[in-house]
Amino acid sequence: METKNNCDTIFTKLIINEKPVFIKVLWEDSETIMFSIQFFTEDNSWQGKYTTEAAAKFMQRFKQTKEEYAMDVKSFLLKMNPMFKYDFRDNNEKATFSWKKKFEGSAVILHGSLEMEQSTDTKSLLIDSLIEDNQTLRNNLDISRSEIKHAETDLKRYQDKLEKLNNINSSLEETLLGKFVQLLNSKKKRIQLLEDALNNTDN
To answer: Whole-prediction pTM value?
Structure first.
């Protein structure tokens, strides 16, 4: 299933009760709300909020921390997760979205549930959100490309400077070595002259 996840907004297409459902999730993670959710079915749209109070009951049931429980919930909101079973029921005015977690064997235990109400939003709003999200991603991509280009330019400039410094260092080493050899030869000649003079004196 196709998913777009930008910062705290998740767009997902799930198959629930053998029917496609487009979902928009705003992950709030505030003191009272874990996430807000919108469902776009073939005929209607629905909206609801999953409270931290409701989530706390399931955290206690599964002996999970808030971070562990949130990770589980995000894992099935991002894409169809075989470890979860989804259910969505509506009576034209109210709706319930619930999910159950599968365990080894045949155990399937309710992992979360929230009540939803009808919304006046349409799929065109979802498409507008996707277009806006896509434009944001494109802008971020352009910024990243520009930063990479500048970084490559800086890297090339520093490499050129390093190469020049290496060349200068090599030239200095050769010059110093040449002077040292000259000095050494000069000292050798001086020592030889002094030895010759000493030998002549002894004779």
So the answer is: 0.58
